[in-house]
Design brief:
Blueprint (H helix, E strand, L loop, with lengths): L14 H7 L4 H8 L21 H13 L5 H27 L2 E3 L5 E3 L1 H20 L4
Antiparallel strand pairs: 1-2
Helix pairs in contact: 3-4, 4-5
Length: 137
């Protein structure tokens, strides 16, 4: 509502947010501070690795669960996707090692194995996910 004192059209901040910013004023925000606020409970991270991961990825999952404790649901999902990408890259490397880096095309031309691109994409995703999670791979 324009022209009304205290109604600037912006979202109101909680008393906790004012305290964090250092501009808490009891005469203005005191009534808001009377109601105790509790932090939302974070989900407990599952210690068991998700199904479908390789033995090495499950071991890495367990190690990350032991080493770090403050996991959000989105962090756990991103970690799972990163470990799946790591598994996919390893599968591609094994198949490329078996079949060779190049293949013969339908007209006899030599071309790069298509899984090289899949491996490169998987490694890139894995590294970006670990960087986002601030983890060493």
């Amino acid at each position: 509502m324009a022209g009304v004192k205290g109604r600037g059209g912006q979202n109101r901040l909680s008393a906790d947010e004012h305290q964090l910013r250092g501009n808490f004023r009891p005469e203005r925000h005191g009534a808001l501070a009377l109601a105790p606020t509790s932090a939302p409970a974070r989900p407990q991270p599952p210690l068991a690795a998700p199904r479908g991961l390789s033995r090495a990825a499950r071991a890495a999952w367990r190690e990350y669960m032991r080493e770090f404790t403050d996991w959000s649901a989105s962090d756990l999902e991103l970690l799972e996707l990163a470990l799946r990408a790591k598994d996919r890259a390893a599968q591609c490397r094994r198949r490329i090692a078996r079949e060779g880096l190049t293949l013969r095309g339908p007209r006899g031309a030599t071309r790069l194995h298509p899984l090289v691109r899949v491996e490169r994409t998987s490694v890139g995703f894995m590294l970006n996910a670990f960087k986002t999670l601030r983890l060493d791979s």
